[in-house]
């Protein structure tokens, strides 16, 4: 669970189409909300689209779709 | 157990319908109650409470409350808070006797979180597994027996779309009230730790009937829960501090603990045969949310929506207009002449016509918006425009309100309740009325028709008047964005702003849902706005019909003498008398009183009267003009236009309605806050007169300055 500084891979680091697994969240508030929506540590995530000009991220988490702001996506740490 | 004994003695049971957003709960609600539903308010807040009646047997009828969709008992928006507020307090007036929990069976794992929380309230509970039809298409096999055993509740497979399982659900609801003990005393999912128990015990002092989990919820939400008193909140805060109870940490722990318990159950009970990856939504979204095509498609859709409003609504609007004209004439011919007949025809019938004429446009707009919402498109629009909206201090979700206010700002403002962040929600509420609503259409139509020639441009593709219309709409949008940006700079907040929006799969719309939504919105409009518009037209009629009696008689006398000297016909004489009388009436006095203020904008006292009455509701403008220019009971825009063209300044002899005056009036109507109903709704939503007052002042101030600038530049 504990990632080393510098090697932490965030959802915002992966490219479109790549599938990864959620490890943990850097922020309890955002993490709590995401978990309530069904995105948990262990859930498979994939980036479908990034809106232009620093816009929102359209992702698939497990078997549902989510729109996240960049900051929200950046609080998701991947395995 | 005591509760179980008394439960049958109550006359009307309350059943709460709960579930996550997008679980299809509204479909089920509509299936259960049909048109037997109404919208009320939860006590103390303005969140809509949808209540319906369901007849189970000849003797038993239950009340069903459709609660807003929420993901958990840890809410983000006002809409979601009401769920916790009601369910954590057994003494709440809406506390249910039983809960029907609706879950999307195709996404059972994530939908079970809130279910497990509801389970711990220990209210009789039924689990409805919705979207059974889609589960079948996807090849899902559900082991109901296993789920019933593990979750300890009766389960019904159903589909709000096809109606499958609705009868089974009704049977289960009936059963629950026959033998309530069967579903009570279930095992709670979550076990509180020492610090949680200690704080919950403190909270329990103030909610003595609450169970352990409900007390924990009170402990979590004590900062905003009502009816907790200030000192009770302080006591809970103090206990939390002493026990090192950190709400966020405890929430995360609870959520993880619950998932760990039910995920194995869900995985065991649901088998997926074959690969059934539903990628239709993804394929559609590769175009519909495309970085370039997405916004283009959005604007094309909006253009089509407004085109539809204008073209589809014109026929029914003409019919309604014609009907009320005919009704007025008929009543006038049947009743004897006098003030009472005048009140009925010019006050009430004209007023009613003024309200009902907007129904076609509002109904069409809400039909199309409800359709876009039902298929899942609106969430995509929120995703695409979130960044742009953020720049102006708004939220992606604000786009729904901004579009809806093209029909009417009232439901648009009510739709902002899904925006969790208070600042973003407030800014959306404040700027939404800048978007030109359908009430401005008649005013625009008269004035544009007057100053802009109906000429085809761009090779017959576009009409000059149509372009002018569009220009006014764009001006409204621009004003909304600039105002939002200014508010963003002024207002401060510590609250985190979130998007975190689930994008549900595209689904073909269920027409029953769409039509019920339209029905509800239209009836809200008629009730909320209608009352006020009707009241205003009666007051207006009084003001325009009465005045200091000597002056009124004098005016009538002068007019008759003038008519005789000019040998006018009977009709013309009547018109002249009416015009002279309105000048002497109270309304005329009011108009003259404000004339010095509006003269720099190019308006005379007659326009002044129309402005004053428009401050109650814009659509009154055309009717007022008709009264003032004594075109009798006809609101026909052509007769008003030709009458306007003849209007001269008495001292200069120049036309009153020059290009400058007309444009100045148009600008005024684009910006001005002239709708009492909207101000009343803003008060309800913000719970303070501060915001409607600020809104009124800045919008009307901008209108005055804009009109002043326009007139002075052009005249």
Features:
heterodimer; A: alpha+beta; SH3 type barrels; six-stranded antiparallel sheet; 6 strands; B: alpha/beta; Rossmann fold; seven-stranded mixed sheet; elongated
Structure summarized in a few sentences:
Chain A is α+β, with helices and mostly antiparallel strands and 79 residues long. Chain A has 2 helices and 6 strands.
Care to describe what's here?
- The complex is a heterodimer of chains A (79) and B (715).
- By secondary structure, chain A is α+β, with helices and mostly antiparallel strands.
- Chain A has one domain: Ferrous iron transport protein A (FeoA) (SH3 type barrels), CATH 2.30.30.90.
- Chain A has two helices and six strands; from the N terminus they run E-E-H-E-E-E-H-E.
- In chain A, strand 3 and strand 4 form a beta hairpin.
- Chain A is globular, with a radius of gyration of 11 Å.
- The mean pLDDT of chain A is 90.
- Chain B is α/β, with parallel strands linked by helices.
- Chain B folds into four domains: 172 residues, Rossmann fold (3-Layer(aba) Sandwich); 79 residues, no CATH class; 186 residues, no CATH class; 203 residues, no CATH class.
- In chain B, the strands form three sheets. Chain B has a seven-stranded mixed β-sheet with strand order 2-3-4-1-5-6-8, sandwiched between helices. Chain B has a two-stranded antiparallel ribbon with strand order 7-9. Chain B has a two-stranded antiparallel ribbon with strand order 10-11.
- In chain B, helix 4 links the parallel strand 5 and strand 6.
- In chain B, helix 22 runs parallel beside helix 27.
- Chain B is elongated and about 95 Å long.
- Strand 5 of chain A pairs antiparallel with strand 12 of chain B, so a sheet runs across the interface.
């Amino acid at each position: 669970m504990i990632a080393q500084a510098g090697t932490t891979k965030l959802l915002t680091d992966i490219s479109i189409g790549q599938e990864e697994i959620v490890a943990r969240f850097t922020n309890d508030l955002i993490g709590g909300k995401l978990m309530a929506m069904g995105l948990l540590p262990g859930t498979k995530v994939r980036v479908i689209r990034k809106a232009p000009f620093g816009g929102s991220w359209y992702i698939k988490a497990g078997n549902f779709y989510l729109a996240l702001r960049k900051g929200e996506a950046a609080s998701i740490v991947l395995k | 157990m005591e509760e179980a004994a008394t439960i049958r003695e109550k006359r009307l049971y309350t059943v709460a319908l709960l579930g996550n957003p997008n679980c299809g709960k509204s479909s089920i609600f509509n299936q259960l109650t049909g048109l037997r539903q109404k919208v009320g308010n939860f006590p103390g807040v303005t969140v809509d409470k949808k209540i319906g009646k369901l007849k189970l047997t000849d003797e038993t009828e239950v009340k069903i409350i459709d609660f807003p969709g929420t993901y958990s008992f840890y809410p983000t928006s006002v809409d979601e808070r009401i769920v916790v507020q009601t369910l954590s307090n057994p003494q709440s007036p809406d506390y249910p006797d039983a809960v029907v929990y609706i879950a999307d069976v195709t996404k059972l794992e994530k939908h079970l979180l809130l279910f497990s929380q509801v389970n711990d309230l220990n209210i009789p509970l039924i689990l409805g597994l919705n979207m059974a039809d889609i589960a079948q298409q996807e090849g899902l096999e559900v082991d109901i027996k296993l789920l019933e055993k593990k979750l300890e509740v009766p389960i019904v497979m159903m589909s709000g779309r096809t109606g499958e399982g609705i009868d089974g659900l009704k049977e289960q609801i009936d059963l629950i009230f026959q033998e309530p003990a069967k579903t009570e005393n279930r095992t709670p999912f979550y076990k509180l730790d020492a610090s949680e128990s200690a704080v919950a015990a403190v909270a329990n002092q103030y909610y003595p009937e609450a169970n352990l989990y409900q007390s924990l919820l009170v402990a979590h939400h004590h900062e905003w829960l009502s009816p907790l008193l200030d000192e009770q909140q302080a006591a809970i805060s103090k206990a939390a501090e002493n026990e090192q109870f950190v709400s966020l940490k405890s929430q995360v722990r609870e959520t993880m603990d619950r998932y760990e318990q039910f995920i194995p159950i869900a995985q065991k009970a649901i088998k997926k045969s074959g690969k059934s990856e539903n990628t239709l939504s993804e394929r559609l979204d590769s175009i519909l949310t495309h970085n370039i095509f997405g916004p283009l498609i959005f604007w094309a859709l909006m253009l089509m929506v407004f085109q539809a409003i204008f073209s589809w609504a014109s026929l029914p609007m003409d019919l309604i207009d014609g009907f009320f004209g005919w009704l007025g004439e008929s009543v006038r011919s049947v009743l004897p002449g006098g003030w009472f007949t005048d009140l009925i025809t010019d006050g009430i019938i004209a007023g009613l016509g003024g309200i009902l004429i907007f129904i076609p446009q509002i109904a069409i707009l809400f039909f199309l918006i409800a359709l876009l919402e039902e298929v899942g498109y609106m969430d995509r629009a929120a995703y695409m425009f979130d960044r742009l909206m953020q720049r102006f201090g708004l939220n992606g979700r604000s786009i729904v309100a901004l579009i809806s206010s093209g029909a009417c700002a009232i439901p648009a403002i009510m739709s902002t309740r899904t925006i969790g962040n208070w600042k973003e929600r407030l800014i959306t509420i404040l700027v939404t009325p800048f978007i030109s609503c359908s009430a401005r259409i008649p005013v625009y139509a008269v004035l544009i028709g007057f100053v802009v020639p109906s000429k085809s441009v761009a090779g017959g593709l576009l009409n000059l008047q149509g372009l002018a219309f569009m220009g006014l709409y764009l001006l409204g949008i621009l004003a909304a964005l600039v105002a939002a940006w200014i508010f963003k700079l002024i207002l401060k907040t510590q609250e985190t702003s979130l998007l975190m929006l689930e994008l549900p799969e595209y689904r073909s719309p269920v027409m029953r849902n769409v039509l019920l939504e339209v029905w509800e919105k239209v009836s809200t409009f008629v009730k909320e706005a209608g009352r006020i518009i009707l009241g205003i037209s009666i007051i207006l009629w009084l003001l325009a019909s009465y005045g200091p009696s000597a002056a009124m008689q004098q005016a009538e006398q002068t007019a008759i003498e003038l008519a005789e000297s000019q040998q006018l016909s009977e009709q013309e004489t009547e018109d002249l008398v009416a015009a002279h009388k309105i000048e002497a009436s109270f309304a005329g006095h009011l108009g003259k009183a404000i004339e010095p203020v509006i003269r720099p904008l190019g308006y005379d006292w007659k326009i002044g009267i129309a402005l004053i009455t428009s401050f109650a509701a814009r659509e009154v403008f055309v009717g007022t003009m008709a009264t003032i220019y004594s075109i009798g009971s006809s609101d026909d825009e052509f007769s008003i236009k030709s009458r306007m063209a003849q209007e001269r300044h008495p001292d200069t002899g120049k036309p009153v309605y020059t290009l400058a005056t007309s444009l100045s009036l148009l600008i005024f109507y684009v910006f001005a806050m002239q709708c009492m109903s909207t101000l009343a709704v803003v008060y309800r939503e913000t719970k303070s007169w501060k915001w409607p007052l600020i809104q009124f002042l800045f919008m009307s101030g901008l209108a005055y300055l804009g009109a002043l600038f326009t007139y002075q530049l052009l005249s």
